[in-house]
Amino acid sequence: MRLNMKGIKIGNKQSKYPIIQGGMGVGVSLHKLAGTVSKEGGIGIISCADIGYQEEDFNKNPLEANLRAIKKEIKMAREIAGEDKILGVNIMVAMKEYATYVKACVKEKIDLIISGAGIPKDLPEYVKGTITKIAPIVSSLRCCKLIVKHWITKYDYVPDMIVIEGPEAGGHLGFKREELDEENKPKLEDITSEIVEYIKGVEKETGKEIPVISAGGIWDSKDIKKYLNLGASGVQMATRFVATNECDASEEFKKAYINAKEEDIKIIKSPVGMPGRAIYNEFIQKTENEECHIDKCYNCIKTCNVATTPYCITKALINAVKGNLKEGLVFCGSNVSKVKEIISVHDLMNELVCDIN
After folding, report:
1. In angstroms, how far is the first alpha carbon of the chain from the final one?
2. Overall pTM > 0.85
3. Of the candidates 91, 352, 319, 72, which has an alpha carbon nearest to the alpha carbon of residue 239?
């Protein structure tokens, strides 16, 4: 049986299923994965984090390489998905050229921009009058209220979607380190219920429908049903999409997910100043004991200081996605130890929308 659920409406398009594939960088979710997810009825998300790492001039001109790659990746993803499908990008607020990357995606008429790793307070300025819709990533009701009120007051812009990332998500997390300890950890269910209730009031006041999306630690159709029953319009999932044939990462990267055990999952301190969830490997162990030599700065993150950072996160993420795990950082979600095999996006989507009852 299929879950009785409707898709997510973005502008004049609607996905078949209420599933968004989370953006994963560097290079983990590019055109192949995002395009295929959209084709199969979800919403595929391209990560813009150092998206041009495969361009020949990336080391010399990272900004130009990234802008060129944004255009290429969106075009190729659309060719896979089809023009009638919803395609999005994830752009971190913490990126130094944030506004430039947003404008590049808007120019390519991307359907949706999801933005976190900071507060995207000026995002409406870049999309007003365009077809591109925008969604902030929030981790609490307080953060959600702050962004919604600011966008409405300054830009007369109501968010097109709200994405809630809970503490079980992968990569950089919007929580203080102490909030991620088991005794202090907030529950995604509670955050979702609070935000859904708040957004109902905003919808009533503004007359605009605002999908609320829950993310972080969502694994199967049972989880999807739980959040839909709490009032969410859909879920965002990332970890499960890594172990697919279409994922843009190397086979070695995917195997790191398959081989990961529960005890391998650690919260680390990222060079960008945020806690992050990753697979504890030889590289992380090395960085805990000694600083890595940084011979090149890619000017990627606002909060990174070359003089004090223990290692270059761009280089570490690029090494990982290419399969050089001994010198690579492998971000993951809390459920990575459940990943056991590599399957197609088609089969994964079918599994996710099948009723388990």
Report:
1. 9
2. yes
3. 352
